Amino acid sequence: MLDYFCGSGTTAVECKLLNRNFIGIDINEKAIELAKENLNFEYLFGGDVDLRVGDARNLSFLEDSSVDLICSHPPYSNIINYTFDNEHDLSHLDTENFLNEIKKVADESYRVLKDEKFCAILIGDMRKNKLVVPLGFWTIDKYLQAGFKIKEIIIKRQHNCKTTGFWYNNSIKYNFLLLAHEYLVVFQKTDRSDSFDEEKNIADLSYSVIDDIYFESTSVWISNSSNYLDNAISNLVKRYSKNFCIYNINNDITANLVVYLLDNKFEEFINDIQKANNNRIVAILCNDNRLDNGLVRSESIFVEQKLRNNEYLKIKEIIILALNTINETNITENLNINHKYLLIYQKVK
Question: Which of 73, 134, 268, 279 is the least crowded, having the fewest Cβ atoms under 10 Å away?
C-alpha cells in the first residue's frame, strides 16, 4: 500500500495493525519524523513499513505496476500550509497551480498502480467570496484525465460542523452553507469502458412544499428516500425564494428560483437559462449512476465540467442529499449509492 501524502502516519499505523506492507512519503521531513514516532510500537503481525521524505509527483523509486493500493489525502490547495518554506509543498499553491501539479500526482499514481487495482483519494471543496470552489470535482477530473475510472464515490460527512449559534446565524445572514462533506473517491486502473447513455427522462415530477421544514445550514441534507424531493425543494424555497418553478414541467425560467431535475434536455435548459434575468438561483439535481460494468458515472461531475467556464452561471453551493436507504441484506461487491447532489448556480449576467 502507498500513501504519498503520509503526514503523521495515520494510514501507516492502520497498515501495521492489519499486517499490510506500507510505503509512505511526505514532502515534510517533520511529518515523517512524527510518523516514525507513531509507528514505534511492537505488534506481532505487523507488515513491513517504508517511510521516506519524497514528492508525490515523482515516484521514480517505484517500478511500473508495482503497488496494490493507493490511499491518500492531498492538501486542499493553499487553505492550510503544512510547511513554512518548502517550495515543493503543494499546500503553498493557489488553486490553478495546485491542479496542474495534482495532475502529475495522478499520472504517477496510474503508472505505479497494478492493473485492476484501486486508488482512494479523500478530497473536499473550499469557499471563496461566499461561493463554493469545487476543488473536489476538479481534483477528481485530474485523476480521470490520467486514465482512472470511478469505482465508488463515498460521501464523508463532517459531524463537527456547528449548525447553531454563530455559524448558523451567519449562514443565514450571508446566505451560504457550511461545508459538511468530503469525497472519498475510489478510482480503478482498468480498461473497462465507462460510456453512459445520456438519454434520460424524469418519470415522476410530483412534489410538495413543506412550510415548517427544518432550515438546513450545512451542505449535507439528510432525508428518507421517499420524501427527499419534497425536503430538498422546501429547503431551496425557504433559503432562496418562494417564487420558484420546476423547469421540467413547463420549461419556465421566469421565477427567482429555477429547479431543474437533470434529464436529456440539458443543453436546451442551459440555452434557456442564459436568457433569464440576472441573480436567479438555479438548482440542478444530479445522481451518481452505477453502470452495468460496476463503474460509477457521476452526473454532477459531468454538469460541472459543462458549466465550468460558463460566463452566465457561477457555482454557489454543492449540496449532498443523503438518503436513509441502507439495506444491510443487499450486500454486493459494489456499494449502495445513497446520495444525490444539488448543484446551486447563480445567474450573473
Answer: 279
